[in-house]
Specification:
There is one protein chain. With 310 residues, the chain is α/β, with parallel strands linked by helices. The chain is 27% helix and 31% strand. It contains 9 helices and 15 strands. The strands form 3 sheets. Strands 1, 2, 3, 4, 5 and 11 form a 6-stranded mixed sheet that branches. A 5-stranded mixed sheet has the order 8-7-9-6-10. Helix 7 runs antiparallel to helix 8. The longest helix has 15 residues. The radius of gyration is 22 Å and the shape is elongated. The model has no long low-confidence stretch (mean pLDDT 92).
């Protein structure tokens, strides 16, 4: 396997900035790809060791392009996550002023994060989506559009200037990125972990979603992301992308996954990996009756009962 990481390019994306915060990135060749799909396909094809892509932002929730790619195709596994605070700059060619801007471009996920600013300062500008924020900057450099919302750091890379900086509609906006590789054994639990799965219902009936969520709730497992995605099989057919607190090696998480495997049409395990937002010392305490020790003790008690040793 090549010692390289694919990432959503071109150079100068927030994805690249977040990727370079990983210590191991310094020892890998970092290769930009034109889309999330092509970066993940590079891993599937064995052209890259792993791919680094955005998966969620604090304004709009899950990045549907990434979620859909992880739902479909050959299975991949999430190994790491990174949180990056996001603020945009309005990048233009030298000499361009605010009154000159008729078209603006950025990745679709950026639009909800700058919508109010755009309405207040450029109400008549036309929005054009790009494959990434850095690609929007490249298109401005080429003269395709007048301005791009991107990281201020991308200005020098594309010969542009930052006409406005610090642009954001929501304070403390963050984007979550994940390092994705081919399936392998999850890393050892840290005590502050996250498990990601995709669930497909067997059939549509009253309480079907409650049944799925109940496998987590009854074991005291907190959910951090719940997003439905269409399966493509027709209106009303959805799968559910879920992030839950805990690691697959935790007794309560393992039991929840066993329960889901019994009642779901299909379960895709996307990985157990360290959380980027907290450390083990800060992790949420388990609810009474949901610790690994209590699950083990209960299982031992049942075994004794079966053996007539109660």
């Amino acid at each position: 396997m090549p010692a390289s990481y694919a990432y959503l390019g071109p150079e100068g994306t927030f994805t690249e900035v977040a990727l370079r915060t990983l210590p191991e990135a310094a020892t890998r060749e970092l290769i930009p790809y034109v889309s999330v799909q092509s970066a993940l396909d590079a891993v599937r094809a064995g052209e890259a060791e792993a791919a680094f892509v955005p998966i969620e932002n604090s304004v709009e929730g899950g990045i549907t392009t990434t979620l859909d790619e992880l739902v479909a195709g050959a299975p991949l596994t999430i190994y790491r996550e990174v949180l990056l605070s996001i603020t945009f700059a309005l990048l233009v060619r030298p000499g361009t002023e605010l009154t000159d801007i008729k078209t603006v471009s950025a990745h679709p996920a950026a639009q909800p994060q700058v919508r109010n600013w755009l309405r207040a300062h450029l109400p008549d500008a036309t929005w054009e989506s790009a494959a990434s924020n850095a690609d929007a900057a490249r298109l401005v450099q080429e003269g395709r559009y007048d301005a791009a919302f991107a990281g201020e750091f991308a200005a020098a890379r594309y010969g542009l200037r930052a006409l406005e900086t610090g642009i954001h509609d929501a304070e403390n906006a963050q984007t979550r990125f994940v390092l994705v590789g081919r399936p392998a054994r999850p890393a050892a639990p840290t005590g502050a972990d996250k498990t990601s799965v995709v669930l497909w219902q067997r059939d549509d009936h009253p309480g079907a979603l409650r049944d799925l969520l109940g496998e987590f709730a009854s074991r005291g497992i907190n959910l951090m992301l719940l997003q439905s995605r269409p399966t493509g099989a027709g209106i009303g057919n959805y799968c559910f992308c879920i992030d839950a607190e805990g690691h697959i090696s935790d007794r309560r998480m393992a039991e929840a996954l066993r329960g889901l495997k019994r009642i779901c049409l299909q379960v895709r395990f996307l990985g157990s990996y360290p959380r980027a937002d907290i450390t083990a010392a800060e992790a949420r305490p388990t609810l009474p009756g949901t610790s690994d020790e209590e699950f083990t003790a209960a299982a031992d008690w049942v075994a004794r009962c079966q053996d007539g040793r109660f």
